Hints:
By secondary structure, this protein is of the alpha+beta class. The protein folds into 2 domains: about 110 residues, Phosphorylase Kinase, domain 1 (2-Layer Sandwich), CATH 3.30.200.20; about 240 residues, Aminoglycoside 3'-phosphotransferase, Chain: A, domain 2 (Alpha-Beta Complex), CATH 3.90.1200. Helix 10 packs parallel to helix 14. The radius of gyration is 20 Å and the shape is globular. The site of magnesium ion has 3 residues, from loops.
Amino acid sequence: MQSTNELSQIVNQFAIQGQVLDIKPLGNGLINDTLLVHTDGPEDYVLQRINNAIFQDVELLQHNIDCATAHIRKKLAGDPDIERKVLRFLPCKATGKSYWTDGNSYWRVSVFIQGAHTLEAVNPESSYCAGKSFGQFEAMLADIPDQLGEPIPDFHNMELRARQLHEAVSANPVGRLAEPEVQAILADLLPFEEQMCKAERLYREGRLPKRICHCDTKVNNMLFDENGAVLCVIDLDTLMPSFVFSDFGDFLRTGANTVAEDCPDIDKVDFRMDIFEAFAKGYLEGAGSFLTPIEVENLPYAACLFPYMQAVRFFADYINGDTYYKIQYPDHNLVRTRNQVALFHAALEKTPQMQAIIARVTG
Ligand code: GN1
Ligand code: MG
């Protein structure tokens, strides 16, 4: 990482107010580098280096974010707390674009939202609020006039993720297939592959629409206010046309897990039905009006799909030698995989209960 001086010069490429006082790390994302920029002016800022090995089309990525934040801003016009409810990215002084590149890395700056905090775990009340906010977020973007693209093509396409796992297995680049546990996890995951690719089949049959979704609704990608209500959805990099299952399933993957996604003690992993119920209620209230019966009926499937897809992604990365996710120790991706496999089984077992809840909430 660059020195504070260098980072400060980067921040100054953008139309900030005041002088930079200090810059320190913020949050724990697995992809981008995020820093908090403290200034002597009225606003502090978030500086991010966009991981452009993963997000190769930064122009498209920022186009999506610019269109979505502008559209949401229009819908929230008149709201006295608007500045805390939608992100504001600063233009680069030289180009007017919402990012700057030094030729190597890509950077962007947004206004830091004051008085907000992220959560790593939720309770039923905050899950209800989160559900409602994500539902409303999708509803606000349902009529966006701009054409948004896929910054990571087929990001939540389970068929692609399954194929990538098969490719990792065939390539076996670092020899990890020799580990008995890797074989055991593979044998555990493969029988569910076809079942989990249901969304793509429904889409091909013309029975499932794509809508603008956030696609990374894990709990720590939303800001809560002092009273526990969701203020703002952050981390908009993966905003793109997808199935609503993305936002529903990925929240529960982190929110309903009794432990963190990398907790090594898998006996402690369980899928919390109180969180499912609260989130589903909020989500259906927030989004309700535009969801089709097929979408609603498959929400329990979405709750199983996301732990499964994440298990497949962490596992493929482990087999590939940890090239995608940041890791803190050598078998971190394997630990994450075990955890997500356990969560998948817990969710799958509870599918009948989930169906009953959805029927009750919509009934
Ligand atoms: C990544 O960047 P971060 O940590 O919010 C990943 C998500 C995964 C998540 C798992 C672009 O999100 O898809 O669900 O890690 N984002 C990308 O923790 O791959
Ligand atoms: Mg994040």
